[in-house]
Amino acid sequence: MPNTKSAERRARNSARKHVRNNSVKARLKTLEKSFLGLVAAGKKDDAAKALRNVASAFDKAAKTGVVHKATVNRKKSRLTIRLAATK
To answer: How far is CA 80 from CA 7, 19, 20, 63, 77, in A?
Structure first.
């Protein structure tokens, strides 16, 4: 239990951010999974559109500090390579 007023506030903020971060991360995983499904199915045009959505969502998550910028850059790079490798 927090002992001071500021500690109570930090606990509330932490809990709120925890919920927000988890929902953003879950959305990122869902978008990435749907992109990989399109790549596996060989739908290159649809996968290219999905990649734009995934990259945008990753950039927004990095901007708000949910995911580290280097992690975002690595994932976007690997997803782009996967798309380029499809026929």
So the answer is: 43, 29, 27, 20, 5
